[in-house]
């Protein structure tokens, strides 16, 4: 529980309380405006409490993740206790299971794309003309695009 009383967490608690009170106050203000006959304020009267609920949701989620990582112990720190760490910094599946790191969420894997046109295939005429134009601009740094001879 001491993790929730660090300066960063105290700032989060204060920000959450200030935002929720402000959003609920703005929602009440919109209710009073709607009662006076401003019909568009009914939408805002619903919207501000939804914003307040979202702030509480995010705060609760962060709180839960912090308490959950505290309960997991030091072995969830990134493969220090028996974890096999890859070059990218992620922990392999076998090490993740032994260290208690959830395996359902992983970093995205980059996949090499196959070019749409094979390297030896036909060249697009517009693309070739554009590449010649870019090469000419690169070779003539002071020239204006209107000076292109092609």
Shape: elongated
The main β sheet shows up as: none
Proportion of beta-strand residues: under 5%
Number-wise, the strands total 0
Helix content: 55-70%
The assigned structural class equals mainly alpha
How far is the N terminus from the C terminus?
71 Å
What average pLDDT do the residues reach? 79
Q: Could you give the order of the helices and strands? A: HHHH
Low-pLDDT segments: 76-93
Number of helical segments? 4
Radius of gyration: 29 Å
Report on this model:
- This protein has 150 residues and is an all-alpha fold.
- It is built from four helices and no strands.
- Helix 1 packs antiparallel against helix 2.
- The relative contact order is 0.06.
Identify the notable features of this structure and list them briefly.
4 helices, 55% helix, 150 residues
Brief sketch in words of this structure:
The chain is mainly alpha-helical and 150 residues long. The chain contains four helices and no strands.
